[in-house]
Amino acid sequence: MSEENWIEVGSTDSIEEEDLIRFDHQDKTFCVYRLTDGFYATDGMCTHETVHLEDGLVMDDEIECPMHQGIFNIKSGEALSPPACEDLKTYPVKVDNDKIFIKID
Amino acid sequence: MKNNIIILGGGQAAIYAAREVRKNDTDSNIKILSEENLLPYERPPLSKDFLLNKKNEDDLYFHSSDVLKNENIDFENVLINKVDFENKKLFTKNDDVYSYNSLLISTGSENKKLSLDKNLNDDIYYLRNLEEAKTIKEKISNKNKITIIGGGFIGLEIASSISQLKKKVTVIEIGNQLMGRIIPKQIADLVQKTHIEHGNDIILNKQIEKISKKNDIYEILLNDNSLIETEFIIAGIGSTPSIKLFENTNLKLDNGIVTNQYCETSIKDVYAAGDVSNFYHPLYERNIRLESYQHAQNHGICAGKNIAGVKTEYSSVPWMWSDQFNLNLQLTGICDDYDEMVERGNNINNGVIYFFLKNKIIKGACGLGIVGKVGRDIRITSKLSEKNTIVDTQILSDETQKLNKLIQK
Predict the structure, then answer these.
(1) Which of A53, A78, B265, B316 could cross-link A73 (Cys pair, CB 3.0–4.6 Å)?
(2) Is A83 near chain B, with CB under 8 Å?
(3) Which of A49, A54, A64 is facing B379, going by the closest CB pair?
């Protein structure tokens, strides 16, 4: 993995546990999550309709879309509950010196 | 002989039930009998993205025929017109016979029809299935003035879509507010304001006296003697459970098919799920009948489990949504049985929610906001309601405080 693809999101204390923040980079938008066992990242928009998951509810390892309650696994991106049926893209995350980075391809 | 499970009705509850049976029972024959010659499809987009050409027919199906084939679920397009519960048989009008060991009835609901001038019955359009949505889409393409009779969810969603197609829309509602059957007036008024801002005319508290047709124009006379001229009429005035087939049988009916919390009807080995079922809800300790996406899905799944022998109680907190313009309206629980109402937020840009509580326990909530703004709090509300959690109303009403702190882990 080349270093230049790791994009800094912010500090680790910018996200509460079992919560997420929205992160925009160039023309893309992401959600970055803090779960009990670490940080994760997915695409920002729900795969079902045009709504950002930043306003969704994080429960355990799942993010639930605020519009129609489609549910995705945050770690795998798997669509778990309709109306969502298309998986959510996930991105690698690393923490370095209390800063969160995501790897955007 | 293999066990035969028949699912009568081919909608959302049917497909979720069939797949859930298969998950728990790899042996039985499972057959869905559907009046529509279409695999089960999603209805919510019909009044919205389908009319707006943002979704086409192929986007609507829950599953491809391959999924059904892989799971060994038969789907047959057939019209059943007689049921013999005693001998566990269903008949077509040609006396083709389908025998079952277990039967799930998921025949859904059907539109109430306006009874005005009989000569104009075919001039009034309704939207429930894909065929009707296609017809409306095609017929309105060269019309500019469209009238919708009924200010409920379906009427308003169509009004929103047609308005976005740059047509002049008038909505006529007999009640004194929009969506009056289940939506609190405070929220209904905000929805009404949005429709008016987008150029739709909303007429409340008026009855239709007469509809007449002159050339290609309809004249709708209201009870205050006002006259509305329109080129096309769509009605959405409510629905009734599809139970005609069972009216002269022993099956217990009362606003649908009466079921207990296990989707069981009054007849052994006969189950009902979805819109057609008036089911006992243990949380509210009474029977309710729901017409919603979430309910059709979850009730179907619950019925599937019970048919497969996995005894499962249905206690989902009701939840439904409506999308109109850039707004998302959500409702959870029951909003008509409360001793305290709490308001959260005052601007639809950030979301407005009304909570309905009894003895400090949330019984229901209704929220409206720009897409995405009320969903999380409504979802948390469902969880609080489900667990009968006593809540601090100060937190409910304070937008700066997150509601997830109310969830007790």
Answers:
(1) A78
(2) yes
(3) A64
For B21-36, give the DSSP string: HHHH-SSSEEEEEESS
Best residue of B379, B381, B384, B401 to probe chain A, by most A CBs closer than 10 Å: B379
Domain count, chain A: 1
Question: In whole angstroms, how far apart are CA B365 and each of A55, A97, A100, B134, B385?
Answer: 18, 43, 37, 34, 10
Q: Which residues on B lie below 8 Å from A22 (Cβ)?
A: none
- Summarised one tens digit per residue, pLDDT across range B35-81 is 999 999 999 999 999 999 999 999 999 999 999 999 999 999 999 99
CB contact under 8 A, A83 and B321: no
Low-confidence ranges of chain A (pLDDT < 50): 1
> B121 and B191 share a domain?
yes
Domain boundary at B205, B235, B265, which? B235
Q: How far is A83 from chain B (nearest CA, A)?
A: 9
B321 inside domain: no
Nearest chain B residue (CA) to A53: B372
One-letter amino acid of B380: I
Domain of B164, CATH number, reads 3.50.50.60
Residue of A49, A57, A67 with shortest CB distance to B380 = A57
Residue numbers in chain B where pLDDT is lower than 50: none
Q: How many residues does chain B have?
A: 409
Range of the domain at A58: 3-103
Buried b (16+ CB within 10 A) or exposed e, A45-84: bbbbbebbbbbbbbbebbbbbbbbbbbbbbeebebebbbb
Number of domains in chain B: 3
CATH number of the domain that residue B389 is part of:
3.30.390.30
pLDDT of residue B306: 98
Q: Based on the fold, state whether residues B104 and B118 are members of the same structural domain.
A: no
Instruction: Look up the domain containing B386 and give its range.
Output: 326-406
Residues of B with CB under 8 A from a CB of A: 42, 44, 49, 62, 293-294, 297, 319, 321, 323, 328, 371-376, 379-380, 404
